[in-house]
Design a protein that fits this description.
The complex is a heterodimer of chains A (153) and B (173). Chain A has five helices and two strands, in the order E-E-H-H-H-H-H. With 153 residues, chain A is mainly alpha-helical. Chain B has eight helices and no strands. Chain B is rod-shaped. The C terminus of chain B is likely disordered. The chains are: A mainly alpha (153), B mainly alpha (173).
Chain lengths: 153, 173
């Protein structure tokens, strides 16, 4: 990758990956669009857990328009793993699943309370009718083939 | 080495001698070759070995389990991996919070209509108790919101914005 210096001279700017490996950065370098030279930490972070070779293979196996998101998600997971070397981002998934269970329980409790209040109101004031409750019983039904199976630790 | 003289799944895949103190052997038994194969495909054996070496022994089993989980998620969704799951679950949490807020506003509404010490029933604001206006006025009495840590949200928007996870509160510290 070449850039024009302000004096009109061409200078080479390697991507962070090629700079890390001290090699020439070709014009069609697969890493260059996603690992710019001014953010070396992004690559060192991802490289630490996945390795440049694996990242390159992953990028090659997907279409170009998906690669930026893929690199960002790998970077996010790598940062989670740095923060929590044992559970990584799986720890976040576990916490979210627990919070969903708590929220479902609270929602069910609130809906039950609405039913009781509605029943009491109907008994006390038979003329008035509140109609259907605003909140219909809903759950978070993942179905039998839930890809995000519960993780507990 | 694994049980008896059988090499562990990692040494079998890598075609090398399984040493007595093989770091992989306790976690990748020979009867489950797929487990190591998928972790090796995503992370690489060398990186997995380094990760395990940096951890105390009693944490390695959980670390391997989480790596297997992440690797499986990445195989299922090569673009987003586990991050897709996090985004999905965060959306569910948001939806549930909203439903709880609506339900609690409705409870408040009903109580205001029923309460004898409240404004007279003939008062137009009480007869026409509006859940929406209660929500907008911030009468949400949900205590769930106080417990909810602030997670970053990952979106697959066209500008590919991901907030720095290190800025969020860590629920496990």
């Amino acid at each position: 990758m070449y850039r024009f210096h302000k004096l009109g001279k061409m200078t080479s700017t390697r991507c962070a990956v090629c700079k890390y490996f001290r090699r020439r950065c070709p014009p069609d370098c697969i890493f260059a669009p996603y690992f710019p030279h001014d953010n070396p930490q992004k690559f060192t972070c991802v490289h630490r857990f996945y390795g440049a070779s694996n990242i390159g293979k992953m990028l090659e196996n997907m279409s170009v328009h998906q690669r930026a998101d893929a690199v960002d998600s790998l970077y996010y997971e790598a940062k989670c793993r740095i923060q929590d070397p044992v559970y990584g981002c799986v720890g976040i998934i576990s916490t979210l699943q627990r919070q969903i269970q708590i929220a479902q329980s609270q929602l069910a409790k609130a809906q039950a309370e609405i039913s009781v209040l509605d029943a009491n109101f109907s008994v006390a004031e038979p003329v008035l009718s509140l109609g259907e409750p605003l909140v219909q019983p809903t759950g978070v039904d993942h179905g039998p083939d839930d890809p995000f199976s519960t993780w507990f630790y | 080495m694994g049980s008896g003289s059988s090499p562990c799944a990692s040494c079998k895949l890598l075609r090398r001698r399984c040493a007595k103190d093989c770091i992989f052997a306790p976690y990748f038994p020979p009867d489950d070759p797929h487990k190591f194969a998928i972790v090796h495909k995503v992370f690489g054996a060398s990186n997995v070995g380094k990760m395990l070496q940096e951890l105390p022994v009693h944490q390695r089993a959980d670390a391997v389990s989480s790596l297997v989980y992440e690797a499986n998620a990445r195989m299922r969704d090569p673009v987003y991996g586990c991050v897709g799951a996090i985004s999905y679950l965060q959306n569910q949490v948001s939806q549930l919070q909203m439903q709880i807020a609506v339900a609690q506003a409705e409870i408040l509404c009903i109580q205001m209509q029923q309460g004898p010490d409240q404004l007279p029933a003939t008062h137009p604001s009480m007869v026409d108790c509006d859940v929406k206006s209660l929500l907008l006025s911030g009468n949400n009495t949900s205590d769930f919101g106080d417990q909810m840590p602030q997670f970053l949200s990952y979106t697959s928007s066209s500008n590919n914005i991901i907030q720095d996870p290190l800025k969020r509160e860590s629920p496990w510290t």
